[in-house]
Amino acid sequence: MDKCQQLYDRLDAGLQGHLSAWSKLPPDTLVMQSREITAIRDAHEYLTETHGLEPEEVDYLLSLDDPLQAVADKWMERMGDLSDFSFALDDLFQHMETQEKKSVLGKLREKAAEPSKPSAPAREQEVR
């Protein structure tokens, strides 16, 4: 068996161990551990489906007791920095501003799409 396959087998076994442990937990505990659960699932997906590992990276990961947990822990460190939330909020609020500020052309198109209302007769026409 090649080293990549050994690593994938260990990653799968690590995930199965976590899944087994999580299945025994009450829902409120799972909710409180959702960040760790997400980190482990993300690490597994990234390592097994997305990232092409170099041979020396495979060797290093195989040298760790629990490569999945090690990668998940590093990912959680990155997720733990909530300063990135400000960037997400900035993006969201920029979207809000573009919704509020409609272009002149956009306003004209909205006006044209409105059903036309019958106009009231002018005063001069009422007298006749």
Describe this protein with a few key phrases.
mainly alpha, 8 helices, 128 residues
Number of strands: 0
State the end-to-end distance. 100 Å
Largest sheet: none
Residue-averaged pLDDT: 85
Structural class, from secondary structure content?
Answer: mainly alpha
Oligomer, anyone?
Answer: single chain
**Rg:** 29 Å
Relative helix content? over 70%
The amount of beta strand, in percent, is: under 5%
Global outline = elongated
Q: How many helices does DSSP assign?
A: 8
Low-confidence stretches: none
Order of helices and strands: HHHHHHHH
Structure characterization notes:
With 128 residues, this protein is mainly α. The protein has a domain at 3-81. The protein has helices at 3-23, 27-32, 34-50, 55-63, 67-79, 85-100, 104-113, 123-127. Helix 1 runs antiparallel to helix 3. The mean pLDDT is 85.
How are the secondary structure elements laid out?
Layout: H1 3-23, H2 27-32, H3 34-50, H4 55-63, H5 67-79, H6 85-100, H7 104-113, H8 123-127
Summarize the structure.
The protein is 76% helix and 0% strand. The protein has 128 residues and is mainly alpha-helical.
